[in-house]
Amino acid sequence: MPTGVTVAANGRIFINFPRWGDDVPFTVGEIKNGKVVPYPDAAINKFDPAHPGETLGSVQSVVMDPADRLWILDTAAPGFSTPVPGGAKLVAVDLATNKVVKTIVLSADTVLPTTYINDVRFDLRQGKSGIAYITDSSVSGPGGIIVVDLDSGESWRKLTGHPSTSPDPSFIPVVEGERLAAREKGKAPAPFNVASDGIAISPDGATLYFCALSSRHLFSVPTSVLIDRKASDETVGKAVVDLGEKGASDGLESDDKGRVYAGDYERNSVRQRQVDGEWKTIAHDPRILWPDTLSVAADGYLYFMANQLHRQAQFHEGQDLRQKPYTLFRIKIDGGPILLK
Prior knowledge:
The protein is mainly beta. It has a single domain (5-332), classed as Neuraminidase (6 Propeller), CATH 2.120.10. The protein contains two helices and 27 strands. The protein has helices spanning 223-227, 233-239; strands at residues 5-7, 13-16, 28-32, 35-38, 59-64, 70-74, 89-94, 99-105, 117-123, 131-136, 144-149, 155-158, 174-175, 178-179, 181-182, 190-191, 196-201, 207-212, 217-222, 241-245, 252-254, 260-264, 269-273, 279-284, 291-296, 301-306, 327-332. The strands form eight sheets. It has a four-stranded antiparallel beta sheet, with no helix packed on it. It has a four-stranded antiparallel beta sheet with strand order 5-6-7-8, with no helix packed on it. The longest helix has 7 residues, at 233-239. The chain is globular and about 55 Å long. The relative contact order is 0.12. The model has no long low-confidence stretch (mean pLDDT 97).
């Protein structure tokens, strides 16, 4: 079951498969000649708990940075379990050599026992080597934004437990006509609450957009208060702006014209936020079953994965309703990726 997709400037397509319970022989792959093969190789995709920082445990996202390097975001938390100590990390791969060129293991202060790192965006102009912004989409603890200095490898948390990074307590998702809830035989349905998930950045790098999966609201915050390690929780919290409802989204993305893209998993849709704040539906189809990660590519297309997340057995009293194959879609847009370098 795939979640993430990203496309290099030369058209190479990479996807990932988190280890949520399916048999996952490799957690990162490249699409070659219509087939998916392990990437960057099969060896690194075999998780070794004795070497958690050097092998891939359960990858949630793959994202190209403005320098056209592939970054792998490894949760090290298969099945949404407690992250393996020393395993949650960012891994950079040079596409020219297909070799790992940098690994940043996130600190225990940043990766809490409840943390599930989800998606990442980059601004390579900040600091010596750039800054990465990561969402913590915990299902059992506080959400938040993790900021990473790509030069030093240091990381810190912002907006931990803030309402904007937390599930909306009044949110009741309805997908394919049914309330989405964890369902076990003989038990009452339990809410499926997921914290901050989707993330996108503005073309000038000054604004970060984000949303909880269990919410219909889009939020923004100035990146300056995230980068400032001395900024208090109160200062950062006051800088957050509620941009209103956008629909219920898993992934977010943005393009070089300042438009924000969001999946709408309740309506089998993908939507585009105009620079004036108006939302426009750019794709609506019954086959868009849970649009997950969104990725704007240099070829002028928006790529996204439909992975039927809501049809998993945990939501249907143990019955797996997913139907293979999963689908990778793309939509032609009048825009390109944001290159902050």
